[in-house]
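Lab meeting, action items carried over

1. Structure of the two-component assembly. Owner: GW. Status: complete.
Input record:
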Amino acid sequence: MTTYPLENLVQTRWQNTFDRLNGGEPGITGLLNISQAWNTAREFLRPRDIREPNSKERNLPVVKTCFDALNEAKLLPRLLETFVEDIRQQESLITAEVSSFMAKYDESEDVTVVKSMLRRLVEWWKAWAPIHELGYTLLSTFNLEFQTHLFSILPSSFPSAFKKLCQSTVGAEPDAQLWGDFERLGLLDRYENLIASVCYEQIEGQVLETCVGRWNEPMLAGLRGWMADKIVPWMILPYARGAKTHEETRSMLQGIGSRFDFHVCKTLCDLRTSEIFDIIVDYPDSNCALLDLKECLQRVDQRSQLVQALRRLNRKRLLHPGADTKDILTQYVLMIRCLRIIDPPGVLLYKVADPVRRYLRERPDTIRSIVASLVGEGGDLVDENEPIQPLQTQFEDYSDPNWEPEAIDAGPEFRTNKPSDVISTLVSIYDSKDLFVKELQVLLAQRLLAIKDGNFEKERQNIEILKLRFGDAALQVCEVMLRDMTDSRRIDQHVQSQKASNLHPTIISKHFWPALQASTLNMPGQFKTIQQTYAKEFTTFKPDKRLRWLPHLGTVELSIELQDRTVEVEVSPLDAAIIELFGSGGKTAWNSQEIIAELGDIDNSSLNKAMMTWIDRGVLFDRGDGTYEVLEIATSAVKAARPPAPKRPAAQPEAPPVVTVQQQEAEQMRVYWKFIEGMLTNLGSLPLDRIQTMLKFAPGYSRTIEQLGTFMEAARREGLVTESGGQYRLNK
Amino acid sequence: MKVHIKRWHAIAQWRWDTGAADADMDDGDDGEGDVCGICRVPYEGCCPSCKMPGDDCPLIWGECTHVFHMHCLLKWIGTAASKQQCPMDRRAWVTAERKVATTGS
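Predicted assembly:
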């Protein structure tokens, strides 16, 4: 009972299948027909070895009817499976051919081998491929099977060989058939990256070849022209083969074209980024390179790379002890100019400049260098053509129709300094401009004191220009200095008219000039007389005022009459005082002690230097026992022993007469040391911030705690204090 | 040997002759100099309302030997509270005659 329904079911199925296959034909003729059709179809599809001559006629209409019959019997899927099975059996043929070709290639490295291999593969493909009329499914199944097999047997050396083949086509006659083959074998899709990389490499090669180190002409346009001439025609085959019209080609190339254009920009951008330091050094000759870079950066988002590269290069090549401060400043100024071209809002500049500025702030002579360039000593920092603007905080002008928001990569503390000029940027390295003014004062003093002919028009001009920048109030002191110069001249004219003198002093207002070196030099003999006469005349002219000489400053022009010759010299007052000693009294030989006793407290080194000056000039000679004597007659012996000394500017003392800002500060700190010493004596040990707090009560104390820390550290090194756990204690 | 000075460019500082400080001056060793008793700025500096020192901001000498910037003192004298007295010793302010002849010698 249980088997009956099952039996029934099987029987029904059998009957149905039979009916389907037999197609309602009498007896089993239908089945026979189907079997006939199957065989024909399979025979038709069977992949053959193309090396064997294929004589079999193909009767397309017959095949077609066979397929129709199979389709009616719903046997097509089965046929497909069989077909695939057949292909698999024959695949070894292809495998053998491919490996023999590739072996040949490996030997010869000749791309034509690859080319002919691909040709051959296409022949296989053509031979095996079912005809179009049999429907798309069959074809795509075949393609899939064929390609899967092909890719599985291609050796690992094939991609590189294929790439070489592609490379060989660049610039050659377009070979449409080759690319057709590529597509047929599915190589285009599979090796798309490889083909693109061929193009990338072409671009990179071209950029490196034409652009390295050439910054004085625009490159980007040339590269794009090269792309249009050389690469685009090549691109048509791989990327726009199906295009019928010009328009179609264009639209098909658009996507890939912009990818390659991007790559051109990126490559050029990378190159210029790596060269950026030297480009900046070469500015303004490298202007074109900068414009290229600017255009590339708009296309390629590599701003942060540029910043990093430049920061790294700066660190490596600029910000180290071997570089001169002036060079760093020059490079910084060039950097400002260059980065303004690349990025007018100044975001890049801000990012790059930060380490440079911080480094410059730590250098002791930065201010001096900047100020020197401000007043025109080696003033290549300042561009004459730049409009002078007063230093002031710049506000955003939102009513400006050309206003643009800050760039997207601007940091939170980014300050727009669009309109400021180079000098303002340099000055803004420091938080306050007072330091500059101080240094400027020192420098101005040095220059003014060195002026002998009363012509200081250039300094006046400089000050006028600087006033525009720093404001009148800040430069008031300099104004007083300049007026002292004018007054001195007027006073001198008056005094000369009363009583002619060959002394022409510069009379200064003590509190408005930087501290000048003190000295106890006593001018001897006729110098003293001249000084006194002049001072007396001065007092007659200005009854309420007195003169106090700074005898060691200034210059003296002397004419020294010796027995056989006259020597004309321009020397420092100390030199003059010494020679006066020899010339005035009856005593002709002096030793150092006697000179010092006569002239006041002179340190040995400056005395020796002065003696050397005279010996060099052949006026004095060293008797050998530490005493010096006048060389009245230039003996041949001395001349032979002492060849004419190289002329040296004796009038200019090596050390500037003006005490520098640092020296002044050290001097002030000495006063505060007394306070600190007192504190530590009374209170034992103190931390740094307590010392700072207490020192703030001292009059005129304006150091930061960092400066105090440096000072205390110096004191510790000198062994004056000890430090443990942040507590300072006097060293007993 | 004979030394002739052809031209000498020297540097000098000017300072006010405050009378009392004459001795110090010759020593030449006083660092800061005296300050005006009113504005506490050195005599050779200028009073708070001036910008140029020297003849533009002169001193005034009192018979009481006290010396001030002229502008400072005049301002002081101009206030009612001053009662025309010297701010240092509260004696009536009398401007001293400067004896040019003696200082010149």
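2. GW to write a short summary for the group page. Key points so far: Residues 639-654 of chain A have pLDDT under 50 and may be disordered. The first helix of chain A runs from residue 3 to 22.
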